[in-house]
Design brief:
The structure is a single chain. With about 180 residues, this protein is mainly alpha-helical. The protein has a single domain, classed as Up-down Bundle (Phospholipase A2), CATH 1.20.90.10. It contains 7 helices and no strands. Helix 4 packs antiparallel against helix 5 and helix 5 runs antiparallel to helix 6. The radius of gyration is 27 Å and the shape is globular. The chain starts with 20 loop residues before the first helix and ends with a helix. About 10% of the residues have low confidence.
């Protein structure tokens, strides 16, 4: 019997496997750098790239909503874009009028307004786009409720849409209209 310990071999070549401590150390350091985010500077997003994503997140389609919602749930993946994800949901209006949950629709609406404003691109066209996406989101939400209560939900959706389309920008509000609305309350 031999006193020499067995040497591990690879199946393909039956040659000895030697662990090289320097390679192991290097691999460990690189892995740690990646985990800690020290591997290098983050990718810088251009203004055009940010606008392209913002535009894609504020369309009226269900796929646009779904993309925005996936990003909302994984905001860290979008940190390089510097988006403002803050929200006050439906502002002074109830988030769940009569039990219909409009919270996420209001959140996406806030996202659109806040980020177009931050980009200096809150034009009439972009405001209209965000408002239209809001209404489409509300109608899709209403479609999830039973046919018995859906008309009430759609009526509230229309009311919420009208409120943002008229009062969503101070430039669009005539002070006389605000005074007239206050008298109705």
């Amino acid at each position: 019997m031999s006193a020499t310990p067995p040497v591990a071999t690879t199946a393909a070549h039956d040659s000895p496997v030697h662990i090289r401590p320097l390679r192991v150390l290097l691999a460990t350091v690189l892995s740690l750098a990646v985990v800690l985010g020290l591997a290098g500077p983050a990718y810088a997003v251009t203004a055009a790239e940010k606008m392209a994503v913002l535009t894609s997140f504020t369309q009226t389609s269900a796929s646009s909503y779904n993309s925005w919602n996936a990003a909302r749930r994984n905001q860290g993946d979008w940190a390089a874009y510097g988006f403002d994800w803050s929200t006050d949901f439906c502002s002074a209006s109830p988030d769940k009028p009569l039990g219909f949950d409009f919270s996420l629709s209001c959140h996406r609406h806030d996202f659109g307004y806040r980020n177009y404003k931050a980009a200096g691109a809150f034009s009439g066209a972009n405001k209209s786009l965000v408002d239209s996406a809001f209404y489409a989101d509300l109608k899709r939400k209403c479609a999830t409720y039973s046919a018995v209560v859906r008309p009430a939900c759609l009526s509230l959706a229309w009311t919420y849409y009208q409120a943002v389309s008229v009062f969503g920008s101070l430039e669009a509000v005539d002070p006389a209209d605000v005074e007239a609305a206050a008298e109705l309350i």
